[in-house]
Amino acid sequence: MRKRKCDRCGERTLSLTMSYFNTEMICPECDEKERGHPEFERARKREEKAVKQGNYNFEGIGKPDGL
Predict the structure, then answer these.
(1) Which domain of life does the UniProt lineage start with (predicted)?
(2) What count of other Cβ atoms lies within 10 Å of the Cβ of residue 30?
(3) The whole model's pTM is what?
């Protein structure tokens, strides 16, 4: 398996997922931190709405302070 680097924290990891706030590929630790952010539900719902409208390249709502 090839380790990759988290776009947010720079740590090497075997697992990455896309952020709901922007197009960064983030590690499980950054994902957990992101899910605890007060703006997470708003970002998730905006991404879901965009995808339902056919926008599979939604760039997110922007990374808030603290992440």
Answers:
(1) Archaea
(2) 21
(3) 0.86
Identify the CA nearest to 27 among candidates 43, 3, 11: 11
Whether 31 and 11 have beta carbons less than 8 Å apart is answered as no
Cα separation of 43 and 2, whole Å? 30
pLDDT (0 to 100) of residue 1: 63
Locate the domains of the chain by residue range: 4-52
Encode pLDDT of 18-60 as tens digits. 999 999 999 999 999 999 999 999 999 999 999 999 999 999 9
Q: Is 23 exposed, middle or buried (0-12, 13-18, 19+ CB in 10 A)?
A: exposed
Tokens for 19, please give them: 């952020």
